[in-house]
Amino acid sequence: MGSYNIYLGDLGNSNLSDSEKATIKSTLEGWFGKIVDAGDTAIVNWVTTEPASIQEHELLVYFVGTRSSTILKFMPGSKGGGTDNGYTAFGNSITGSEVYVSNSRTGLAQIAFHELMHNKLQLDDANLHKKDGLATIPIPPSGSPSDKNNSDMKAALKNKNKQWTGGWLASKDPMNTYM
Prior knowledge:
Blueprint (H helix, E strand, L loop, with lengths): L2 E8 L7 H16 L7 E7 L11 E6 L21 E6 L2 E7 L7 H14 L3 H4 L18 H10 L10 H6 L7
Parallel strand pairs: 1-2, 1-3, 3-5
Antiparallel strand pairs: 4-5
Helix pairs in contact: 1-2
């Protein structure tokens, strides 16, 4: 019996209420609870500092205020992109995901799951968006992962995709003009 960690990064500018955070957390726990191996537990936690022991098979998604306040522009190898709702970048053997809160105050768990599919499956827009469920664009704000989304994620859950944890440092660097 083990646990699988999903970290929700709060860099301090998302302006999410405690209630919104609780809803996102519980929704993602429910969805990932169906994905992890039998007997394992999905643990979803909000973090305000870099997780000390994030494993390469675990996931991290940042919640930032707006697309213009993207933190992933500071990730080595990131080329920019995404939609008005979120973005996942692959570069230099690391992966980063973020959700833009102000553009969509509803469906934030759905957007986070969508970005985490990009992250874990290592699929670009063209390859992920042709799938069903929460992989589609636009992301259904009251949707949930399809059976295929769940099976794809379950098959990839132990893949090692090192997460970029530099968001906290980058957000505090005054030269980044981030905050």
